[in-house]
Design brief:
The protein is of the alpha/beta class and 299 residues long. Helices cover 41% and strands 24% of the residues. The strands form four sheets. It has a five-stranded mixed β-sheet. A five-stranded mixed β-sheet has the order 11-8-12-7-13. A two-stranded antiparallel sheet has the order 1-2. Strand 1 and strand 2 form a beta hairpin. The radius of gyration is 25 Å and the shape is elongated.
Length: 299
């Protein structure tokens, strides 16, 4: 067993603040990590970690070793990554998680375009509307449509994202245009159960505060595409992702409402686990998505 492998194990344990957390993060057993760190301490002739059942801490020697070891490992990984990229040998399999909404919408074409441009990379796409655990389930990255919450993941913004409150002209003629969010409580609404709000839709209140309105209607469905079709058919107002709503808005089949009362700050993000280096195939994929969305913002 080489010193670099033991060094990596020690760094993983320190950064995860424990053997169990490190084992879950990198997909190795707690016993194996403990063995590597013990061997490293034997090799150095110094105790690096204080271990008890309830407490985890570094010794003074551990602090010193961690600082220098982290610098060394970063340099080794940066060198390896540079060689991979300079060789132009970008190939392999990318395990990607994405929402069905993303793949089914026109922006899902980005995945097809990438596959056409990079035939040596296999895109293993898993469509799931839940937030998968990238580390535990072995994903390289995910495309997520949401507000950016605090996370242990690295996130790169691909594009802005917003929702639109929409209804058909016929429904608005029948029930009237809502002037305040509270008006929706008396108007039929279509619920997309894939959304995080369900029947409590969030808005900006009269003073700019966040508020919610309880809504109901004839259809609850776990598909924004079906919710859009129901809205076009005049069954109610619905909240739609902008990239799904815009074609129907531009055609006049849907009309927006309460635009100034909708919350902002969401986006489309590529997210991936913290790693000492990002695999070249993943970097190529993320760079492609960034450029793909940027091109469409200017067209």
């Amino acid at each position: 067993m080489d010193t670099l492998t033991r060094m990596r194990a020690f760094i993983d344990v320190v950064e995860a603040e424990g053997f169990s957390a490190a084992a879950r993060k990198i997909g190795r057993s707690k016993a194996l990590l403990s063995k590597y760190v013990r061997e490293l301490e034997d090799e150095l002739g110094a105790l690096l970690l204080n271990r008890t059942t309830r407490q985890f801490s570094m010794t003074e020697a551990g602090h010193t070793y961690y600082r220098r070891a982290s610098e060394i490992v970063r340099e080794v990984d940066s060198l390896a990554d540079a060689v991979r990229e300079s060789s132009g040998d970008v190939r392999g399999r990318i395990k990607l998680s994405a929402a069905r909404t993303f793949a089914d919408a026109p922006i899902g074409q980005s995945l097809i375009d990438f596959a056409k441009e990079h035939p040596d990379i296999v895109l293993d796409i898993h469509l799931d509307d839940r937030f998968v655990d990238l580390v535990e389930e072995g994903f390289d990255l995910a495309v997520r449509i949401s507000r950016l919450e605090n996370s242990s993941l690295i996130a790169r913004r691909l594009a802005p994202f917003s929702v639109r409150l929409c209804a058909s002209p016929d429904l608005i003629a029948k029930h009237g245009m809502p002037m305040r969010p509270q008006d929706l409580a008396r108007i039929p609404c279509i619920i997309d159960t894939n959304g995080r709000w369900l029947t409590n839709w969030p808005f900006k209140g009269d003073a700019g505060e966040t508020m919610s309105v309880s809504v109901s209607g004839p259809i609850e469905v776990n598909s924004p595409m079906t919710a859009r079709a129901a809205a076009v058919a005049g069954l109610g107002f619905t909240m739609l992702p902008d990239f799904i709503a815009i074609p129907e808005i531009e055609s006049g089949r849907l009309v927006t409402a309460l635009d100034d009362r909708l919350l902002s700050g969401s986006g489309i993000f590529a997210v991936y686990p913290h790693r000492r280096y990002l695999p070249a195939k993943v970097r190529v994929f993320v760079d492609f998505l960034v450029q793909w969305f940027k091109t469409r913002e200017t067209t």
